Amino acid sequence: MTFLKDYSPEAQAAIIAAFTAIITTLLSFLTKSWIEKRIHLNKLENEHKYEQQKILKTLLAKNKMQLLNIAEQLNHRLWNFSENYKENWLNVNGKYDQGNYFKSFVYRFVTFFAYIRKIEGELIFIDSTFASKKDLEFIKFLRTFPQIFCDVKFFEGFKYDKSIARDHFFRNNFEKMVESFIRQDKVISYNDYNEELYLYNDSIAQICIFFDGMTPEEERYRWDLIQTFHLTLIGFLNSYGFDFQYTSTDKINHIIITPRKSKLLANYKNIMTRYKLDSNKEFKKILETKHFA
Questions:
Q1: Residue 29, exposed/middle/buried by CB under 10 A (0-12, 13-18, 19+)?
Q2: Could you please report the per-residue DSSP string of 230-290?
Q3: What confidence score (pLDDT) does residue 16 get?
Q4: In this structure, what is the dihedral angle of CA atoms 144, 145, 146, 149, given to the nearest 10 degrees?
Q5: In this structure, how many other beta carbons lie within 10 angstroms of the beta carbon of residue 239?
Q6: β-sheet bridge partners, residue 182
Q7: Please, what's the b/e burial string for 166-181 (b: 16 or more CB within 10 A of its CB; e: otherwise)?
Q8: Which of 22, 53, 100, 181 has its C-alpha lying 20 to 30 A from 88's C-alpha?
Q9: Quick one: pLDDT at residue 44?
């Protein structure tokens, strides 16, 4: 500060003190303003995060019970089919309006995915990046289930024409079929389905064809996909269901080898790892069962 040389030492000291006070006050104001701004932004972020978590939990809770109930029914049906496939209850030869076993099988399958589709439709408006670990894993399961029947990577290493939806479904077609079971934001009842079979079966014709005559003894891969889906369903129920919906490790081992192991297990494990489901505690137990490898 060369301009100070014309002033007396006392005046210089006063000027320097005044200048220092001004700078200190200005810095203090800017620092306080920045801190207050950050506190306000953090408060807004936390409020937004809490609000999104609250909305997400409410949404999942609203549909969770129905989803768990149909998952339990589907779990029992898949188990029953594996034990009794030789009865040929799924062999209806294109007559999809006949055979209660076939009709209820198809209904439970499509209904399960209809509830998932319904939840996903509502999730569009929610920022799921703020979800808790448990809720996020719930969402991962929901997004993985349709992929089991639509991701052609399950057939890697096998002779399978991926351009033809024979033992899998094209994603858009699958979603359209599933959505046909949702009316006025509600999933149709079995009575509604049974009363208007001619309408619904036309909408889900490809799914009916998929199940018609399915057996573990065929050369196709549809049963192999069903078994991997069954294991995923068990992981979901074990993670979020009630204690009476829990499947023990011994029973899981039995399912894996009854009546035979799925040919797609190795691909399935890799794909589930890619979908990050292997981080789920209950699903990890399935991957580590003695008969899985």
A1: exposed
A2: HHHHHHHHHHHS-GGG---HHHHHHHHHSS---TTHHHHHHHHHHTTGGGSHHHHHHHTST
A3: 67
A4: 110
A5: 17
A6: 187
A7: ebbbeeeebeebbbbb
A8: 181
A9: 46
Which two structure tokens, joined as six digits, stand for 48?
């937004």
Dihedral sign of CA atoms 86, 87, 89, 93 in order: positive
DSSP 8-state class, residue 153: G
Q: CA gyration radius for the chain?
A: 30
Six-digit token string for 199: 């309408």
DSSP class of 86: G
Closest CA to 128 of 234, 53, 220: 53
Q: Spell out the SS3 assignment of 3-50.
A: HHHHCCHHHHHHHHHHHHHHHHHHHHHHHHHHHHHHHHHHHHHHHHHH
Angle at 38 between CA 32 and CA 43, to 5 degrees: 125
Measured CA to CA, the distance from residue 89 to residue 265 in angstroms comes to 26
Q: What is the tens place of the pLDDT at every residue in 250-281?
A: 999 999 999 999 999 999 999 999 999 999 99
Provide the mean pLDDT of the chain: 87
The string of pLDDT tens digits covering residues 215-261 is 999 999 999 999 999 999 999 999 999 999 999 999 999 999 999 99
Tokens standing for residue 184: 């006025």
Selection from 91, 117, 116 nearest residue 105 by Cα: 91
